[in-house]
Specification:
- Pfam families: AMP-binding, AMP-binding_C.
- The chain is an alpha/beta fold and 521 residues long.
- It has 15 helices and 27 strands.
- A hairpin with a 2-residue loop joins strand 25 and strand 26.
- The mean pLDDT is 94.
- The structure holds ligand 8PZ.
- The site of ligand 8PZ has 22 residues, from helix 6, strand 14, strand 21 and strand 22.
Length: 521
């Protein structure tokens, strides 16, 4: 009698990412764009074989479950295979972008004390302490140049509570803050995301975020979890709009994921090439609000595409998906961020910590979810500040994530993001949400996007606005200020309005208010 093969559902990140290798091994898992415009497909079978090979090489090194592996790489078939191999061996994967300054690499290494530092390319490696093993990996395999110091193995059994990856974000104190994600949390999120039906097995998901930004890990899970293909967009091409659009066309990308700023230059310089992307049927964005004028133009250029506003923080990878209404209403206000993915619950809490049930009332957004992070690496105080007692009932001991965001619920039950609790400034005793002033400025005709910071001006905090004009538009600072005077309370009117050609972004592509502060400091 033949026994049916029991396909137990994936419990670990590596199992989830390779599930399609068992069903459609010859379909493309990763489509890499090589410089000569001829995309190279790596099948699920090939990806699984490379991961298997890396896992065997890692097993040789006598590492213990929980020993960290720093991986300096952009997203690629090899990097994904290494992510899978680390998962299989119970080794937390710590991604760092290749362009990361040596000082930051060393700060992350000092923070997480990895057993091994791997890099994907020929580039020079940052010299790390000798107890740490070093090596290089690629399609040919893993080349260990220095073995890690011998260690006694404490652990016997890998569990789903063990760490799948650690994402280091720039902590406010300058010390890198490590967001620790377990296999259980990642798989819980991946399964919820799969239920949104964003992509299917024939899709090609272009990924535009650096591997050190968990948006790339969302892209990998979205594609591979659906038996689709990941299309890593070479970072060097992202800044050239025509080359960026050409990569999307040449690879037949059907879905493009990225922060809003990736579209700015293409919208400005090559809108017609965007319109010609007739394979493109989905765009997913996250990380910050999509400036309305730019979003409207993108939806008009790609009328057949589904636009998904994906909200969340690295402490749960993401937590909600909301379709952008089409056509975008003339005055859309803060976009909906939906109501939490399946199996998660978004709560709004007032300043006394009580849950808010009414619609239209702004409060602090909290997340109850099986996909919450384990904690911040070696920082219990920060963990306790983020994972707080359940506002509905502290007695059960359940923790919820205090997101640091503000939101309100509308009459349909959807939530709307309206800024960060730490992006508020006091102006002459009045609390101002910087995003609110930014949104107002973006309503002024001809403004493409805007950013507002609080700055010390003559001993008082004043608002300084930076406004980017739409292509070919001459903006008049005086006119902008008088528009604000007519439409905002006095204390919310920026002291200064600067028309600029562009806004500085972080390595993850988000508008950097810190860089603006330095510019005016
Ligand atoms: N759709 C949004 N509208 C508006 N503000 C937002 C939005 N998504 C985040 N944010 C903001 O970004 C913060 C999180 O920043 S973060 O921890 O660096 N993580 C991210 O930005 C990416 C996040 N892990 C992620 C990855 C992949 C998909 C979705 C979300 C949130 O708390 C929000 O303030």
């Amino acid at each position: 009698m033949t026994t049916a093969i029991q396909h137990r559902p994936a419990e670990r990140m590596d199992e989830f990412l390779l599930a399609a290798a068992g069903t459609t091994p010859d379909r493309p898992a990763v489509i890499e764009y090589t410089g000569d415009r001829s995309p190279r497909a790596v099948s699920y079978r090939e990806l699984a074989a490379l991961a298997e090979r890396y896992a065997a090489d890692l097993a040789e090194l006598g590492l213990d479950i929980g020993d960290r592996v720093v991986v300096e790489s952009d997203t690629s078939a090899s990097a994904i295979a290494m992510l899978i191999a680390c998962g299989r061996r119970g080794l937390p994967f710590v991604p760092i972008s290749p362009e990361t300054p040596a000082t930051r690499v060393l700060a992350i290494v000092a923070e997480c004390a990895p057993a091994l530092c791997l890099r994907a390319s020929e580039q020079e490696r940052v010299a790390v302490p000798s107890r740490i093993g070093v090596g290089r990996f690629g399609p040919e395999g893993l080349d260990v140049e220095r073995r890690p110091a011998p260690r006694t193995r404490q652990r016997q059994q890998l569990t789903t509570c063990d760490t799948a990856y650690i994402i280091f974000t720039s902590g406010t104190t300058g010390r890198p803050k490590g967001v620790v994600m377990s296999h259980r949390a990642v798989v819980a999120f991946y399964l919820a995301m799969a239920a949104e039906g964003i992509v299917g097995p024939t899709d090609r998901v272009a990924s535009t975020s650096p591997l050190q930004f968990d948006f790339s890990l969302l892209d990998i899970g979205l594609a591979l979890g659906s038996g689709a293909a990941v299309v890593p967009v070479p970072r060097a091409l992202l800044r050239w709009p025509r080359r960026f659009v050409r990569v999307l066309g040449d690879t037949g990308a059907t879905q493009v994921n990225g922060v809003p700023s990736i579209w700015r230059q293409a919208l400005r310089h090559t809108p017609e090439a965007l319109r010609a992307l007739d394979h493109l049927r989905g765009i997913l964005f996250c990380g910050e609000e999509f400036p309305h004028q730019e979003l409207r133009r993108l939806t008009e250029l790609l009328p057949g595409a589904r636009f998904v506003n994906c909200y969340g923080s690295t402490e749960s990878m993401a937590c909600s998906f909301a379709d952008v209404p089409k056509p975008l209403p003339t005055d859309p206000g803060p976009l909906s961020i939906g109501r939490g993915h399946k199996g998660a619950e978004l709560l709004i809490v007032d300043e006394s910590g009580q849950p808010i049930g009414e619609t239209g009332v702004v409060g602090a957004l909290h997340l109850r979810s099986p996909a919450l992070f384990t904690g911040y690496w070696a920082d219990e105080a920060a963990t306790d500040a983020a994972l707080v007692p359940d506002p509905h009932d502290r007695r059960a001991g359940q923790k919820v994530l205090r997101t640091g965001d503000l939101a309100y619920r509308d009459a349909t039950g959807d939530l709307h993001f309206c800024g960060r609790t730490d992006a508020q400034v006091q102006i002459r005793g009045n609390r101002v949400e910087l995003g609110e002033v930014e949104r107002k400025l973006m309503d002024f005709g001809g403004v493409e996007t805007a950013a507002v910071i609080g700055q010390q001006l003559d001993g008082e905090t004043g608002l300084v606005a930076f406004v980017v004009p739409a292509t070919g538009v001459e903006l008049d600072e005086r006119g902008l200020r008088s528009f604000c005077t007519r439409t905002l309370p006095g204390y919310m009117v920026p002291e200064r309005v600067q028309v600029v050609s562009d806004l500085p972004v972080t390595t993850n592509g988000k508008v950097s208010r810190e860089a603006l502060m330095e510019r005016t400091g």
